[in-house]
Write a structure and sequence with these properties.
By secondary structure, the protein is mostly beta strands. About 10% of the residues lie in helices and about 30% in strands.
């Protein structure tokens, strides 16, 4: 059964986030107390160009299974290290379509907006980490493995151990693309 394995936040704009016992998701804003919380874009490199853009990156989710894959490549990564707010297990986040809604625990609901695009901050954290989170499929298309981004549809508290429910969007599937 899909579940939350860790929750993390950080007040400022830092690459890694600190694990917590609980995070509170705020409808339309993100994680209470996190540096990326807000209606408008908080990602520093993107906000520099247009700070009025909507914040499609309110919550960053990452699959715990990636940590084992990275360990095989020589990296020691723990929940929160790569900046995610919610670490998951048992759900293939990367294969879900845009618009998928995830119920996290009893109340909180997020809607997937896109993929996290790996950036050079990953290499500052651990040299070679960015390349380790990128692959190519059989057709030569780039696969980004550094998690997914979401907006908060319904607020609520999220804790490690919470179940994750999945509601796929109606209509044609739109693949996740970097946001």
């Amino acid at each position: 059964m899909p579940a939350v394995t860790a929750v993390s936040l950080h007040k400022g704009h830092h690459f890694s986030k600190t694990n917590a016992l609980v995070i509170r998701l705020l409808t339309g804003l993100g994680v209470e107390g996190d540096g990326h919380c807000g209606e408008a874009m908080k990602h520093r490199s993107r906000a520099r160009f247009d700070p009025s853009l909507p914040n499609l990156r309110q919550v960053h989710l990452m699959h715990e299974e990636l940590f084992a894959e990275l360990a095989d490549k020589g990296f020691t990564i723990r929940p929160g290290d790569m900046g995610e707010n919610v670490t998951t297990r048992g759900i293939d986040l990367l294969s879900l379509p845009a618009g998928t809604r995830l119920r996290l625990g009893g109340e909180a609901v997020v809607e997937l907006t896109g993929l996290r695009n790996p950036c050079v901050q990953m290499d500052r954290f651990a040299p070679g980490l960015m390349a380790a989170t990128l692959e190519k499929d059989a057709d030569g298309n780039l696969i980004r493995k550094a998690g997914v981004m979401a907006v908060v549809i319904a607020g609520g508290d999220v804790r490690p151990g919470d179940a994750i429910g999945v509601v796929l969007p109606e209509g044609p599937r739109r693949p996740l693309v970097p946001v």
